[in-house]
């Protein structure tokens, strides 16, 4: 089961979420890859940001920072985040991950879909197709979205797989059937789905789909999910889960 750092390593105070520092920290800690949130700037550059604006990451409060979709890439890339980091482009993240062959999950924002998400998805598809042409076999990408139409528009663009993320309030079985019908290969569940019904993993796997679960930080729960056949877990503590699953080193013979 793969361990994926949620937004890189959000629990590391020195590495703000969705930055190159957060991605690097997760990979150096032994994670198999990272999940990052993707938005497009006003001039069509794909950058990392979970929120609509950067106020929360800057520490000034949600709603107070530059709105990504209304700001140029030059303005965003010139903005200093806590710890001296900057807002990275998705291309820079993919280049970093490609060095070690790490897996990157690209989550298109906003979650609800709509014109902004579709524009971002279109730019993402074009970027991934171009990278596949220029850098064959360099990337290991799973495209993801909470919105079915957005997720389906990216089917086949990722080099590993394409996923629908299922919100906790939605029926996971129905969502999985819809995902399969739209050509998606993965379904990523909320922990609540599996805690409520352990059998959901087997049912989704029986549809021929891969199963991810996130966000999971408890090593014991991660072990249980692995036993159920979950293919990947997304975690806020990639260092902890990677450390937990690492095989013990035998003591040297006396």
TrEMBL record:
Gene3D superfamilies assigned to the protein according to its UniProt record, in alphabetical order: Phosphatidylinositol (PI) phosphodiesterase
Protein origin, superkingdom: Bacteria
Single annotated GO MF: phosphoric diester hydrolase activity
GO biological process entries: lipid metabolic process
Domain GP-PDE intervals: 1-245
Pfam families from the UniProt entry: GDPD
InterPro entries: GP_PDE_dom, PLC-like_Pdiesterase_TIM-brl
SUPFAM superfamilies: PLC-like phosphodiesterases (SSF51695)
UniProt protein name: Glycerophosphoryl diester phosphodiesterase
């Amino acid at each position: 089961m793969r361990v994926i750092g949620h937004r890189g390593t959000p629990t590391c105070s020195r590495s703000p979420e969705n930055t190159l520092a957060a991605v690097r920290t997760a990979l150096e800690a032994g994670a198999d890859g990272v999940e990052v949130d993707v938005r497009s700037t006003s001039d069509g550059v794909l950058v990392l940001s979970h929120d609509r604006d950067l106020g929360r990451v800057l520490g000034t409060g949600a709603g107070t920072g530059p709105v990504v979709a209304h700001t140029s890439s030059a303005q965003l890339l010139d903005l200093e985040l806590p710890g001296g980091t900057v807002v990275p482009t998705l291309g820079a993240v993919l280049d970093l991950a490609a060095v070690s062959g790490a897996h990157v999950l690209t989550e298109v924002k906003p979650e609800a879909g709509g014109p902004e998400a579709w524009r971002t998805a279109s730019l993402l598809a074009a970027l991934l197709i171009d990278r596949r042409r220029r850098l064959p076999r360099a990337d290991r990408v799973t495209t993801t979205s909470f919105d079915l139409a957005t997720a389906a528009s990216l089917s086949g663009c990722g080099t590993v797989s394409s996923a629908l993320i299922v919100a906790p309030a939605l029926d996971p079985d129905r969502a999985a059937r819809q995902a399969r019908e739209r050509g998606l290969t993965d379904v990523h569940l909320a922990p609540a789905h599996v805690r409520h019904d352990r059998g959901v993993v087997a049912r989704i796997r029986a549809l021929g789909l891969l199963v991810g679960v996130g966000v999971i930080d408890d090593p014991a729960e991660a072990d249980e999910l692995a036993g159920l056949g979950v293919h990947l877990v997304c975690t806020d503590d990639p260092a902890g889960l990677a450390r937990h699953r690492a095989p013990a080193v035998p003591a040297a013979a006396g």
